[in-house]
Specification:
Blueprint (H helix, E strand, L loop, with lengths): L8 H12 L3 E2 L13 E5 L5 E4 L1 H5 L5 H5 L9 E3 L3 E3 L9 H18 L1 H6 L7 E2 L6 H11 L4 E4 L9 E2 L5 E4 H7 L13 E3 L5 E7 L2 E8 L2 H25 L5 H9 L7
Parallel strand pairs: 6-8
Antiparallel strand pairs: 1-2, 2-3, 4-5, 7-9, 10-11, 11-12
Amino acid sequence: MASTIRKTLEEFIEDARKVHGDKYDYSLIKEYVNNKTKVPIKCNRCGGVFWCKPNVHLNGCNCPNCWAKKKPQFGKRKLVYRVATLDIDFASNADDITHKAYGVWYNMLQRCYYKKYQESHPTYIGCTVCDEWLYFSNFLNWFKKNYIDGYVVDKDLLVSGNKIYSPSTCCMIPSEINAMIVTRRRKSSRFGKGVSITRKGRFAAFLVKHNKTYNLGHFDTIEEAFEAYKQGKVAYVREVADAYFKDGKITKEVYDALYRYEPKFKD
């Protein structure tokens, strides 16, 4: 009876690369039984993992995820808002961070280049995206280097009043901090941020701190009330900055910027 010679895992990988080149990652294969026992193969193009018989794979079988996506979710070289280039072609099952990066990139472009959005969000009128980030691949590289779960991209903290989204002006900050310092326009801002009028005609200063509203006192003028709010808000921001920096959750650059933060009357 003739004996059957089985390939080793190393021999299979060597043969597979002769057929497919560097298209696939075989590092997930922990055990190679024979050429008819399926093994896990990772696609370097879409990031998906599929199981395939070794002999079928060596006969030219490719990633079923890529073949099934005749029209990928994100097309190659697609223009977004007529100004930005989606220069990466990846299927809908790409890694989660890439999808999050695409969502952030798309929303950033919308704020800057979609007029209907700006009609309801006028604070973004005049905002632009730097030339480098008009290519998704460049933004994706920056996003992956700086990504932390629960953090958001901020363009105003490092440079007050900034209107340009770029690597030098943007940073990743915790959502809690972003909510504290983000500018939200009210329909009426005649009393200024953190100021209201009482029934007796005096001006009350208030501050939302840790999701609770605190009364900072009553004053004769709007300016006095806003100054009380301003002092309270600055102290609160610095308190949070100290806690995050102590725990290593923000960089020194972000920490210093938070210490420079001052609310504006028309915020």
